[in-house]
Design a protein that fits this description.
- It is a single chain.
- The protein has about 120 residues and is mainly β.
- Strands 2-10-9-4-5-6 form a 6-stranded mixed beta sheet, with no helix packed on it. Strands 1-3-8-7 form a 4-stranded antiparallel beta sheet, with no helix packed on it.
- The radius of gyration is 13 Å and the shape is globular.
- About 30% of the residues are buried.
Amino acid sequence: QVQLVESGGGLVQPGGSLRLSCATSGFTFSDYDMDWYRQVLGKEREFVASITLEGRSTYYADSVKGRFTISRDNPKSTLYLQMNSLKPEDTAVYYCNRRNFPIPWGQGTQVTVSS
């Protein structure tokens, strides 16, 4: 079964930190570049960060650059997103997926940044 399971979200105050995880199964994780996305209710899903097969290259949306770090653990088939200095505008549901040949979206994990 090809699956994506996001976790680690929650309620955090501005300036706080969260670490999101994306557990994958049903495919060879190390064969795919991976991305993080986020979506606000009623809005279009937007790109957040990307990482190549073995984590040698990363790319970030301007809105999160310098605050978020994407990483991966290929033996564990898991993708991560470390989020620091969180802002209210980071509030969204966060999703992971393969950059190319995407598979069905997981349920996502809710991140709420509020005082």
